[in-house]
């Protein structure tokens, strides 16, 4: 059951940063195939990490391993000092490709509230139920405020735009005050303005709550203003570092095992040429 003793969604920041996630020499094998191996990754409080790479490289697999949904073939993953485990309330998760059709007539606010153990909270005594309900409502409102969704939270989720739905799903993931926020392609199918808007909301939430963010994306473009490090997954290898260190001709050519050229424009934009998946992709890079 969710602890509602505090109505605050925010996570207090300690005086010094500490590791929330430690991945040591991890490997995952699915269907007899090694998806990735030798993964080393440490995630600090408040960090914003983008997980990049071509289709099928193993980005979602990495998130699932962090969530304890997949066994490791080798190595360890430690989350907040304990082995990664299923159902960890310290992790808020926005899964891939969740979209509500127009005929879904559930208020946005109700969708957010489902984050409180799927609405399973409550006690048998009426006066405690009322108190719990008030606290839950306050928690829901705080999460809605955090993502800037107050104006449309009482409308049917099915009639909201993709960006509005995405903000409410992020609010749902924030409801348990997670110390880690994990999002699988939350910018997928949004237009550029909404991609930047949702990315900005996630960055803002991370700053306000101290939550670490791991976000899977195909396009680094709308994220580079916010991102601290990238986790690049390709051909069974995982490279971790700042965008300036990882999105380079040398590193991407090595990861893809084919010549890749990374060009940097005077305005800070990065252009990547020659990725097998797509011939040219643009990575806008803004100095941070
Ligand atoms: N249960 C499974 N059994 C066998 N192979 C699997 C299983 N689940 C996933 N895979 C394979 O593992 C690989 C990595 O999948 P994953 O979903 O992590 O890729 P991804 O990088 O997130 O891709 P995308 O960008 O297309 O979402 C894919 O080749 C996929 O087919």
UniProtKB/TrEMBL annotation:
Keywords: ATP-binding, Nucleotide-binding, Transport. Signal peptide: none annotated. It comes from the Bacteria. Pfam families: ABC_tran. Gene3D superfamilies: P-loop containing nucleotide triphosphate hydrolases. Residues 21-260 form the ABC transporter domain. One of its GO terms (molecular function) is ATP binding. InterPro entries: AAA+_ATPase, ABC_transporter-like_ATP-bd, ABC_transporter-like_CS, Metal_Ion_Import_ABC, P-loop_NTPase. SUPFAM superfamilies: P-loop containing nucleoside triphosphate hydrolases. This is ABC transporter ATP-binding protein. It comes from Dictyobacter arantiisoli. The lineage of its organism: Bacteria, Bacillati, Chloroflexota, Ktedonobacteria, Ktedonobacterales.
């Amino acid at each position: 059951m969710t602890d509602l003793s505090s109505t605050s969604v925010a996570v207090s920041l300690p005086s010094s940063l500490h590791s929330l996630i430690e991945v040591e020499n991890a490997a995952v094998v699915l269907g007899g195939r090694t998806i990735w191996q030798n993964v080393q990754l440490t995630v600090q409080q408040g960090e914003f990490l983008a997980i990049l790479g071509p289709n099928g490289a193993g980005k979602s697999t990495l998130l699932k391993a962090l969530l304890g949904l997949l066994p490791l073939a080798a190595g360890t993953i430690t989350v907040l000092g304990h082995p990664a485990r299923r159902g960890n309330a310290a992790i808020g998760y926005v899964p891939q490709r969740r979209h509500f059709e127009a005929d879904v007539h559930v208020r946005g606010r109700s969708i957010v509230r489902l984050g409180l153990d799927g609405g399973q909270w409550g006690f048998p005594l009426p006066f405690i139920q009322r108190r719990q309900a008030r606290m839950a409502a306050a928690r829901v409102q705080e999460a809605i405020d955090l993502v800037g969704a107050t104006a449309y939270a009482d409308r049917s989720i099915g009639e909201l735009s993709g960006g509005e739905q995405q903000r409410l799903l992020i609010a749902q993931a924030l409801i348990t005050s997670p110390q880690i926020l994990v999002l699988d392609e939350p910018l997928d199918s949004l237009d550029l303005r909404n991609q930047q808007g949702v990315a900005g909301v996630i960055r803002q939430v991370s700053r306000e709550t101290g939550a670490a963010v791991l976000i899977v994306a195909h396009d680094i473009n709308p994220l580079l203003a916010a991102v601290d490090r990238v986790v690049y997954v390709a051909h069974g290898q995982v490279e971790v570092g700042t965008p300036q260190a990882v999105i380079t001709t040398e590193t991407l050519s090595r990861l893809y095992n084919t010549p890749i050229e990374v060009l940097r424009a005077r305005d800070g934009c990065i252009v990547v040429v020659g990725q097998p998946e797509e011939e040219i992709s643009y990575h806008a890079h803004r100095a941070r």
